[in-house]
Design a protein that fits this description.
By secondary structure, the protein is of the alpha/beta class. It folds into two domains: 31-109 and 145-176, Immunoglobulin-like; 181-439, Alpha/Beta hydrolase fold, catalytic domain (Rossmann fold), CATH 3.40.50.1820. 25% of the residues lie in helices and 29% in strands. It is built from eleven helices and 21 strands. It has helices at residues 4-21, 120-125, 230-233, 236-239, 244-249, 273-287, 302-313, 352-365, 381-392, 419-428, 432-439, and strands at residues 31-41, 44-59, 68-70, 75-81, 92-100, 110-112, 142-144, 150-153, 156-157, 163-164, 167-170, 173-176, 183-188, 195-201, 212-218, 253-257, 290-300, 320-324, 341-346, 370-375, 398-403. A nine-stranded mixed beta sheet has the order 13-14-16-15-17-18-19-21-20, sandwiched between helices. Helix 7 (302-313) links the parallel strand 17 (290-300) and strand 18. The chain starts with a helix and ends with a helix. 39% of the residues are buried.
């Protein structure tokens, strides 16, 4: 018979058993989600990490690189974070960042498009080799693969003896660092009738009571595309100005139009996108608190050519320009003789190097002061800084820098064709003193 005393003893015993057995039924953290993390480099978008989200915080002491595997990739570091951004590294976090080498072959997300109708050798034989005529529709040289991977995690032991079971998980989300901070919009020009897709970075702590600069970056002809993100994925031309490091020092708006046509050609003609882009910038200065005396333009190759054409047609519009690997008819450049210009080309660039030699000589003939220097594309950040300081000490409004022959190429890189041209912009936007120069108040 069940007595009251037996019942109470039974409850006590059951409670003791539950207390003793409790830890073996403790709920361990679970791997819930994997996010692919990308970062833009000078040569384009790369897949650089997997961010793993767990159901509870993981301490750094429980992690090591050999616990995580991704086929075809090199794991370089593993650490906790508070978000899927590696910059949010922490001692403990519910997100674990598995860093992957950006130099793995599978890190590069650009996919080269081979065009059947493109005969570069024939064009060169005719003395052409350009991308087409201003206003012509064109296609990007690259498409971009979606980053994806399957990650294997071995069992993890946490403090107190609890464990996380071994798991295998595929990425289901993507975090494009900095790139995702841009808005994708369209400008419908009421004057010209053009429709221009564009990317816009608004400073994160934007305060309408303050006034901000704006940097306008325009891509090369090879990035001509109907995909508005192409100009952001193909290099640092827009991304560099929007980085958290640059924004902390030099907060600014960043505009990156996406052209679906050739906007400037080798015959020094432009499409209607010149005025459409100018009208877009004017509209943005009315929408946001942007200082009209601190508008800046930069571009590589065709985008640099369009920047030159803008300076010729509207010499008082931009406070300064950074012109990368581009050229123009030197007989037309006199209107920009008083402009602040930083010109950067490689001596391996068969068109932009002689083209800018002619332009700077023409500007000098008009009375402009030009400071010249030869730099090495393989220098480190300190060397670029020292070289810039020497150049800047000359006090010229126009700075003309050429990369010495052969120095823009990475070891073992292809040097054929337009490689010297393209490798100039791979380096150009990584040189911080030039970015500082563009945005500084003129003396």
């Amino acid at each position: 018979m069940l007595t009251r005393r037996t019942f109470i003893l039974g409850l006590t015993t059951a409670g003791a058993m539950a207390t003793i057995a409790g830890p073996s039924f403790a709920q361990s953290a679970k791997l819930e989600q994997a996010t692919a993390v990308t970062r833009v480099y000078g040569d384009g978008l790369r897949f650089v990490a997997v961010a793993l989200t767990y159901s509870e915080a993981i301490p750094a002491s429980a992690l090591s690189a050999d616990q995580f595997k991704v086929d075809g990739r090199t794991v370089t570091d593993v650490y906790p974070a508070t978000s899927s951004n590696p910059a949010d590294r922490a001692d403990t976090g519910s997100v674990v960042i598995v860093e992957l080498s950006p130099y793995d072959a599978d890190a590069i997300l650009a996919v080269k498009i081979e065009r059947e109708d493109k005969d570069e050798d024939a064009d060169k034989a005719k003395g052409k080799g350009g991308p087409g005529k201003a206003g012509d529709a064109a296609l990007s040289d690259n498409s971009w693969a979606e980053p994806s991977a399957t990650l294997k995690q071995s069992a993890l032991t946490l403090a107190g003896g609890s464990t996380i079971a071994a798991a295998e998980i595929a990425t289901s989300k993507v975090n494009n660092l900095i790139l995702d901070d841009f808005q994708q919009l369209e400008w419908h020009d009421p004057q010209i009738g053009d429709v221009l897709p564009y990317n816009l970075f608004v400073p994160k702590d934007y305060d309408p009571s303050k006034s901000y600069p704006l940097v306008n970056f325009m891509h090369d002809a090879g990035a001509t595309s109907a995909d508005v993100l192409t100009t952001l994925k193909q290099g640092l031309g827009a991304i560099s100005w929007a980085s958290p490091e640059d924004q902390a020092k030099r907060p600014c708006f960043v505009l990156a139009p996406q052209f679906a046509e050739i906007v400037a050609d080798d015959d020094s003609n432009t499409s209607s996108m010149l005025d459409t882009t100018i009208n877009l910038i004017k509209a943005l200065t009315e929408q946001y608190s942007i200082d009209t005396s601190k508008l800046y333009t930069t571009g590589q190759s065709g985008g640099g050519m369009l920047s030159i054409a803008m300076n010729i047609k509207y010499p008082d519009f931009f406070a300064a320009s950074f012109l990368v690997a581009c050229q123009w008819d030197a007989s037309l450049v006199a209107p920009m003789m008083n402009n602040r210009l930083f010109i950067l080309v490689s001596q391996d660039d068969s068109k932009a190097f002689p083209g800018q030699n002619a332009i700077t000589e023409a500007l000098e003939a008009e009375g402009a002061k030009v400071a010249r220097a030869e730099w090495d594309g393989g220098w480190n950040a300190d060397q670029f800084r020292f070289a810039f300081d020497d150049l800047n000490a000359e006090g010229a409004k126009i700075n003309y820098v050429t990369f010495a022959e052969g120095t823009v190429f990475e070891e073992g890189a292809d040097r054929a064709g337009a490689s010297g041209h393209r490798n100039t912009w791979r380096l150009a936007y990584s040189i911080e003193p030039i970015r500082e120069w563009l945005l500084r108040d003129p003396a």
